Amino acid sequence: MRPFGKPAAVALAALLTLTACGGANEATRVAKGPQPLRMTIWTSNEAHLKLFDEIAAEYRKTHPDVGEITFDPIPFENYTTTLTTQIAGGNAPDLAWILENSAPDFVSSGALAPLDDTLRKAEGYGFDDLTPSAVKLWQAEGRLYAYPFSTSPFGVFVNTDLLKKAGQKTPAEMIEEGTWTWEKVVAQNAAVVSKTGKAGMVVRDFDYKSWDNLASVWGGWGAQAWSEDGRTCGFDSPEMAEAMTFLHRAVFTDKAFPGPGTTADFFAGDAAMTITQISRASLLQDAKFGWDLVPLPAGPKGEYSVIGQAGLGVFKKSANAAAAVDFLAFFTNPANSARLAAYFPPPRASQLTADTLAKSNPLLKPEQLQQVVIGGIEKGVVKPSHTGQAELAQTVRAALDPLWRPGADVKAVLGGVCAKIQPMLGT
């Protein structure tokens, strides 16, 4: 969701606005010799980096004016903070991955170069193949400021061997009989913990800090962090109270989720289930256990889907902005988009078919891709995003801290969240 309320003054937005201002565009400077490009990313996955380097090498063969193209991994948990620190220090990259929760700030700031003209003119690019729903978050006043290279619904990876050891049905069986629901799934994970000593359900990358990943849970109750227009806090709604009460009970009473301070790696066989995206499937290449990938369990409001997005943008004040936009066009053209689809579901309508995705995702079955990815994109909502997200995220995280204790007063904590952030959401 992309709200349009007037936000409080926020450090990130202010910094990006300053980045967009100033005198003549630095890209107009004349440089001698091949110019390097640097792109910040949050993956250090060797398979991802190998593919990126291959695409960059192909580009440089026909662009002698471009020097080394570097992909600079920044840890996910500190990505936006580190990126904005680089910007503030005059060390901004030429291109950058951008999280969906930071999209409103980056897009509205004027810090990013518009991409439309270059992408439309690039031979064979197929700009009109980009789906309107995928590009919406990255547009302002009809211009595209970042390419949504990944539109990825959250699904559930399941260790079917652990379920069998605990005497539980497989997700496929439950989906067939219509019992793949949060109530049943929590009971299953509690049984795994009790009978095998392994962990139950892990919301990957949450770790009781990145609260927006819990949208993959509370969406089943129809809860929202804030209203569609971004003006009204949703944490104190009845739907959110029901969802968070359920989650609190699942963590502290049922022990179905690892508690605060406890970690478990599903991909190492240490947990029964994990909520994440298909880009993690490559971690199962050498898995020594049976596994499946299925949609999120149904909640009281029925079936639902939550989508994480990532955009790729170029900083307008980069000394090499023109070359960076041209490289972005090559990096995301139809052929390379198909290659990237092995890890990142593309925004191209022509490539969003189970058969097409299966060709670049050999570990996943066409029916898994159809159910989780294709079906998820069709009915999914994007994780919470808002202008001023950095300050909002920190405030929500701090206000939710009292919730992650046994015996917490869920409604009181959620009311406290709204008391803190409502003034920040605008009027």
UniProtKB/TrEMBL annotation:
Keywords of this protein's UniProt record, alphabetized? Answer: Signal
Signal peptide (residue range)? 1-22
* SUPFAM superfamilies for the chain: Periplasmic binding protein-like II (SSF53850)
Question: PROSITE patterns recorded for this chain?
Answer: PROKAR_LIPOPROTEIN (PS51257)
Pfam families to which the protein is assigned, alphabetical: SBP_bac_1
InterPro entries recorded: Bact_solute-bd_prot1, SBP
The answer to whether the entry has keyword Signal is yes
Manganese keyword on record: no
- Put simply, this protein is called ABC transporter substrate-binding protein
- Please name the source species: Streptosporangium amethystogenes subsp. fukuiense
